[in-house]
Each structure stands twice: as C-alpha cells, then as structure tokens.
Amino acid sequence: MKDGKLGVALVGLGMYSEGQLVPALQKAAHCYLAGIVSGNPHKLEVWKEKYDLKEDACYSYRNFDQIKDNPEIDIVYVALPNSLHAEAVIAAARAGKHVICEKPMAITVHDCDRMIAACKEAGKMLSIGYRLHFEPHNKEAMRLGQQKVFGAVKMVEAAHSLNEVEGWRLDKALSGGGPLMDVGIYCVQAARYVTGSEPIAVTAQEGIKRDHEKFKTVEEAIEWQMEMGDGSIAHCKSSYSVKENNFRVETESGWFELSPAFPYSGVKGKTSEGEMKFPQVTQQALQMDDFALCIKEGRQTSVSGEEGRQDVKILQAIYKAMETGERVEVNGQ
Ligand code: NAD
Prior knowledge:
The chain has helices spanning 15-27, 41-50, 85-94, 109-122, 136-146, 172-175, 179-195, 283-297, 305-324, and strands at residues 6-11, 31-37, 58-59, 75-78, 98-101, 126-128, 153-161, 199-206, 221-228, 233-239, 244-251, 254-258, 269-271, 274-275, 328-329.
C-alpha cells in the first residue's frame, strides 16, 4: 500500500499485461503497479526502468515466494497462459496476497477448486478478470435482461471470434482448448449475465477444421447451444478464423443487442427503443479499483473465483458435448 492505494504485482508480462493492465493501473484510483514477476531477466530489467519500479519489486518465478516479505504488494494479478494460472494463484495466496486471475480461471474444475481452497485457507480474496462486468453497455444488458425490462428473455445469440491467433493459444496443454476457452467464454458469460440464470444442459458441434497443422490440438471453430435455467436458449459460436464480436437478445416484447459487445473500448448498444448512450470507460481500471475497494471494505467481489469456476465447468460440458455429440447436463459434470 502507498498513499492509500493498494499495490498490484503483475505475473506474466505479455500482451495483456503491457497493453491493457499497466495503462489501466496508471489510471486507477485505488491501486497502482507495485511489482512484476517474469521468467525473463531482460524483460524484468526493461520494465523496471520503464515503469520506475524498485529492484526488490521485480521477481523471477524462482524467488516469487519472497513476495510475501514485500508489504507494498497487496494484490497479485496472474496473466499467464491458462494452464499456468492455478499454480501461480496458489503460490500468491500462500505468500499472503489477494489475487486476481485472468480468464479462463483454469483449464479444469479441479484446478479451480484448488485455487479457491488456497485463497480461503490463506484468508485472501480471489477475483477473475471479468472486465465487462464493469462496462456500462454490458451492465445495461444485465439490467434489461435480468429485470425483464422488455419482458422475459427468449433467446441469446452470441459470437466471439478472432483471427491471427498464434503461440500458446494453439497448444492445448497451455490453453486448455481453442477459441471456446479464449473468447467463447465471453458468450457463456453474456448468456449468464443477461438472463441471470445458469445453463442446465448444452449441445455442441465442432466447426470445419481447414488448417489441420495449425489446429492440431485445439478446435478451429465451435458452435454450441445452452438451455438456460430461465427457459431461454442461447446459440453461441466462436472461431479462430474470422472476426465476430456481438450478442443479440430477443425478449417477449422487444430486443437489445451489443455490437461490438466485448472489446476493450468502443462497445455499442441498441434496444428495440433506440440507441444506448453510455460513456466509454477503462474497464480494467474499474475492475481493479472495485477489487481494491472490496479488499479495503471487506466486501465480496461480484467476479469471484466461484464465478470463474462456473464458467470452466460449463466450458468442460461444452467440450464433452462436442466430443460425444450428446446433450450434456452441466450439473452432471
Ligand atoms: P501473451 O502470450 O501475450 O503473454 C503470456 C505471458 O506469459 C508472456 O509474457 C510469456 O512470456 C509468459 N509465459 C510464462 N510461461 C509461459 C509458457 N510456458 N508459455 C508461453 N508463455 C509463457 O498472452 P496474453 O494475451 O497476455 O494472455 C495472458 C492471459 O490473459 C490469458 O489467460 C488470457 O486468456 C488472458 N487475457 C485476458 C484478456 C481480457 O480481456 N480479460 C485479454 C487478453 C488475454
């Protein structure tokens, strides 16, 4: 803590940390960049200079546990490839730090359980990097759907696809799967936060795989359907070969849609009554500030480890449905 702001140490200094989290920490009101953790000594040196960090605020994975002796670091933010989240979160909790972990929380429900247990045992809070819970258009979609402003939700159609993906995202051992794990998770989130209900069962179909070499261990594309607990249906798709970024909600007496729905900025929304008019925000700054205030005020985060675990459980059910061709009940997992 410094000047009333909580110190955040970033673990994994990749694209998301550098491109989004550091600028957000520079804008945040209740937290700041207090430390870094990386396996790359050169990167540590460059970041130390660039962001004016102290020598003893820069850790490698080998001396990561010494972070426990640094009182300026209150929160560890894990932004590593997906399968590495679990060990880093557990180590951070054992070092006595609160933790934010990027999505997807982990690649198995078992890992999610271990992460939640480690934070509970250490008496530390755990949050998942669901930045859109702090984005005004997405918050409005939550309100419109959950409060049935245009009547009950009947159908959610959501798509999130990227192209030009490379590296660990194409290696199942590190990613846990293809576009579903990476960006399809946003469609699962949208269906859940728009309806305020959970999927009961899912069906899924793998999309056409055109590049068998590139997509050797993960799907290139997937479509899936979710029977939601409120009686609505979600149709979703995700791919690594095109660009899509939207959701549309049909209700009893109207509709609303966000397009684009999930970007860092530039979200736009419309309803059957007109355009949504909300400001653009720095989502990650609001997300991290909210977590800092949760810690200070001793209140629960709305984007908890349990929330992250629920998504991982649904993603696993979707993969099972894709592989078996069967309808899979989410709670039967
Ligand atoms: P990235 O590849 O740019 O960065 C990953 C970092 O992890 C790199 O610094 C890399 O050196 C390090 N690393 C450590 N061990 C590694 C290993 N064995 N293999 C590969 N890299 C290793 O990835 P990114 O886009 O920054 O994604 C990191 C995490 O953040 C992922 O979980 C991703 O899903 C999440 N993410 C979230 C959002 C969001 O909007 N919330 C956006 C992008 C990424």
